[in-house]
Amino acid sequence: MTQIKMLKSPHGFSANCYLIQSGNEYAVVDPTAPYDPSLCEGKVRYILLTHTHFDHILEVDSWVKSGAEVVISKEDRDALSNPRINCYALFDGSDNGYFGEAMALSDGDILPLGDTEIKFISCPGHTIGSGTFIIDGNAFVGDTIFEGGGFGRFDLPTGNFVMLRNSIARLMELDDNTVVYPGHGDKTTIKEYKTDIGR
Length: 199
Hints:
By secondary structure, the protein is an alpha/beta fold. Helices cover 14% and strands 31% of the residues. It has 4 helices and 14 strands. The protein has helices at 60-64, 88-92, 161-171, 190-196; strands spanning 3-7, 17-22, 25-29, 43-48, 69-73, 103-105, 110-113, 116-122, 131-135, 138-142, 145-146, 150-151, 179-182, 188-189. A hairpin with a 2-residue loop joins β9 and β10 (138-142).
């Protein structure tokens, strides 16, 4: 059985951080809370990044120390170390980023985790490499869509409104009961989101 927990970030401006457990393995999504070994009784296998914006990668280096592998779309991988594109330069004037190794995913790639698997689907628009991780009826969508019918901005580097609109349409093809875990705000479902946007 897959278990999901939201971790509290100490940073004033940060994205939601989720810890996923399946069997005796773990994955963290968009790490903005520091790694705490007391939270994980087994192996931390993946650090799943929905995209490269700074408010989603604040504690990547902390989690890398656990031995987990950083995972991101192939389109966004190089932006991790580019402060102009990951928006560190824009929002705090720094040259920060993640400068280590990362596994690059393509649309439809599958990752094993414990007793189940994670599917990656490309959802460009918020950034050129934004993606969604789907596991056991749960979708970690980053900043593609938000509870209440909202969606991510597309005016930052590599953002594109047409791509974002198409990605939202693709997410609407998921099962209505899929639980949506966004990068900011509360969770929702595909059915609720459709209702919110009048579909």
